[in-house]
Amino acid sequence: MNEDTFFSLNPYHVALVVVGVIVILSRWLPRLVSKREPAAAPLMILFGAAAALLVPGFLIPPDPRQIPLPWELVSELTVIVALFSAGMRIDSLRPWRRWMPTVRMLVIAMPLTILAVALLGVAVGGLTVAGAILLGAVLAPTDPVLAADVQVGPPQEGEEHPVRFTLTTEAGLNDGLAFPFVYLGLIVAAEGLNPGAWAWEWLLRDVLYRIILGAFMGWAGGRLLGIVLFSVPKGSILAETGSGVIAIAGVLLCYGSTELVEGYGFIAVAVLGLTLRRIEKDHHFHRRLHDFSESIEHALTAVLLIALGSVLPTLLVDLSWTHVLIALTLIVVIRPVSAWIALMKTGLGQRDRAVISVYGVRGIGSIYYLCYAGSHMEFTNETQLWSLVGLVILLSTILHGFSVGWAMDQVNDD
Q1: How confident is the model at residue 287 (pLDDT cuts 50, 70, 90)?
Q2: Mapped to the 3 state alphabet, what secondary structure does 294-317 carry?
Q3: How far apart are the first and last CA of the chain?
Q4: What interhelical angle do 110-123 and 335-342 show, nearest 10?
Q5: In angstroms, rounded to a whole number, what is the distance separating the alpha carbons of residues 141 and 83?
Q6: Number of other residues whose CB lies within 10 A of the CB of residue 94
Q7: Is 84 buried (19+), middle (13-18) or exposed (0-12) by CB count in 10 A?
Q8: Count of Cβ atoms closer than 10 Å to residue 412 Cβ
Q9: Residue scoring higher pLDDT (38 or 16)
Q10: What is the band of 317 on the pLDDT scale with cuts at 50, 70, 90?
């Protein structure tokens, strides 16, 4: 062996070391100053950026603007598992009136957010109409992956405060409901701003058909998976083995089959989790399944956040003050105001409304949607979109991550 290469720094091995160190530091360092659950997400992004700039030989992931596929696939898998976990966390669906804040957030706050961001993108950011619509769709949904601190507890714990319930169910469903607007951006980019040529097809196919089919496939998949896990064969059911692999396989089956028939897979896996949780709801397997899927979710999220941090210096090269203005306006004005309007006359107290309005974390879902759009069409404003989305995720994880513990204390004191 050549002595000159004996201690060569293999970029892959350097990356393994750096990722391991970053994950440990991100989870451990906050414990030195607080006993709360660590705000690890922003630290992973920041440490990932530092590693890319300072660590010699560090293996930097491919630029998502040039090679979106690996980013799309990993973020897609992460969101799938997170959406299923969000559905599994809900112990009780009733009384139905507890869903009213969630419904209002989905049908009022999210469209208002998309519209406001799109208008801001055109007026301030100089984006095309198609790029502005896509930006609104990408940034509208809240993230089921990074918002665990404001969501309900694991199955059978009963931590379902109205604020936590609303934020959990909103994050579980709005990822899928943002998809029609992603398609709208793609349609406008391809055919122009001529609603007479495509409006009915978009409404019937991308809104009604795909949403309804996604919900049905999730319900049917949950019922069938429940039979496999809890009913057949009698006396030797799979749930007693305690293995979560079969259920995760069911999640992949449900998502893939829904996408094959052109439904929204994100909606399907969220409904799958909600449906499966109703079957043998007191069985210990539900907690084991949630913990298993949550471990996968956390591992994938850590890799994605560190990867995002490592490419962030490249993505932010083209950043301008207009991007900063748009990002801050979304986080501190658009989301809070649109949510506050949506939650009027829901019976929630002002403090609860404020927490729900403010804590709409942006993250992994935005990465997926932008990669999906970029792999299907080349946008004029793609560089600007990535700069904006990268900045929004960074600011959101920092502002929300480091303040959420205090905010939830205020809610719990009510």
Answers
A1: confident
A2: HHHHHHHHHHHHHHHHHHHHHHHH
A3: 68
A4: 150
A5: 12
A6: 7
A7: buried
A8: 11
A9: 16
A10: confident
Taking each helix axis as running N to C, give the angle between helix 364-376 and helix 129-139, from 0 to 180 degrees, rounded to the nearest 10.
150
pLDDT digits (tens, 9 = 90+) for 360-414: 777 888 999 999 988 887 777 788 889 999 999 999 888 887 777 676 666 665 5
pLDDT given for residue 158 in this prediction: 58
CA nearest neighbour of 84 among 297, 288, 241:
297
- In this structure, how many other beta carbons lie within 10 angstroms of the beta carbon of residue 31? 11
Between CA 396 and CA 394 the distance in angstroms is 6
- Which tokens hold the place of 48? 């990932």
Please choose, from the candidates 367, 396, 395, the residue with its C-alpha nearest in 3D space to the C-alpha of residue 65: 367
| Crossing angle of helices 285-315 and 40-54, rounded to 10° | 40
Task: Tell me which amino acid residue 25 is.
Answer: L
What pLDDT, in 10s, does the model give residues 206-249? 999 999 999 999 999 999 999 988 887 877 787 777 677 887 88
Fold of 67-412: Na+/H+ antiporter like fold (1.20.1530)
Q: pLDDT tier at 164 (50, 70, 90 boundaries)?
A: confident
Asked if residues 272 and 222 have their Cβ atoms less than 8 Å apart, the reply is yes
pLDDT at 360: 79
Three-state SS for the chain is: CCHHHCCCCCHHHHHHHHHHHHHHHHHHHHHHCCCCCCCHHHHHHHHHHHHHHHCCCCCCCCCCCCCCHHHHHHHHHHHHHHHHHHHHHCCCCCCHHHHHHHHHHHHHHHHHHHHHHHHHHHHCCCCCHHHHHHHHHHHCCCCCCCCHHHCCCCCCCCCCCHHHHHHHHHHHHHHHHCHHHHHHHHHHHHHCCCHHHHHHHHHHHHHHHHHHHHHHHHHHHHHHHHHHHHCCCCCCCHHHHCCCHHHHHHHHHHHHHHHHCCCCHHHHHHHHHHHHHHCCCCCCHHHHHHHHHHHHHHHHHHHHHHHHHHHHHHHHHHCCHHHHHHHHHHHHHHHHHHHHHHCCCCCCCHHHHHHHHHCCCCCHHHHHHHHHHHHHCCCCCHHHHHHHHHHHHHHHHHHHHCCHHHHHHHHHCC
Full-model pTM: 0.90
**Phi–psi pair at 324, nearest 5 degrees:** -65, -40
